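Annotated sample (chain length 250).
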Amino acid sequence: MEVQSQGNSYAAILSLILGAVPAVVFLYKQYKQRKQEAEKPEPFPEDGIFTLESLARFDGRKNPICLGVCGLVVDVSTSENIQAGEGYGKLWAGRDATWSLATLSLKAEDANIMDFKVSELTEEQHKALAGWYKHFTTKYTIVGKLKEYEGWDFSSVVEEAKSQTPFGAPRTDDEAAAEIAEGAKAAAEEKPAAAPAEGLVLKKGEKVKIVGHEKFAGYVGTLEDFDRAAGGFKVKLEPEGNVEVFKPTQ
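Output written by the structure step:
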């Protein structure tokens, strides 16, 4: 009787274990499915309208990397220079970069600033914003609009952008250097300065802005010197302080 009782107990335990297996498998599948759904990227808004709050979720950590410029939202996930949590991505991923781009600011606190008016931008700020607007809207996909900019008029920026060269467009260093030289020439002409017959003498300390260069577009720098060996102008770029050489053209 005792042996039979123990056998019945073992059978009951085995039945219990075997009966629990399907339940465990089911629960595991449910957990795995929920985990996959949680890790699945969030789709863009169906109506294409973002808010600063919803835009913040598109910072590259789970969802694609997006940023705002002049009321539009662009997907910059394919950019090598904008990565989640680092570099420009740390500044602008999931944020509105309009004011930062207009002022060429690399300060994180200048993102999402909207207490300005397009009509009050300086000529240089307006031009810089137009250049960046064309860069982002021609190189990357526009995926929506930013609700907080409803009623804003960026038509002047869009119009000036038509005459801008996208910063990502292929250009040679010589072409970019020519623009630097032109900017330095204009600055030098504002002050009385003697120039030799063979060409313009660039002054050390002149502030210049890099426009149209594939790598350094939008950077501001100081003319340091002329490197005879390299045949170009040394420009100390801000804020990193690295010195790059740009060759002028005739």
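Annotation: The beta strands are 49-50, 66-69, 72-75, 82-83, 141-146, 207-209, 220-227, 232-237, 243-246.
Annotation: The CA atoms of residues 54 and 229 lie 52 Å apart.
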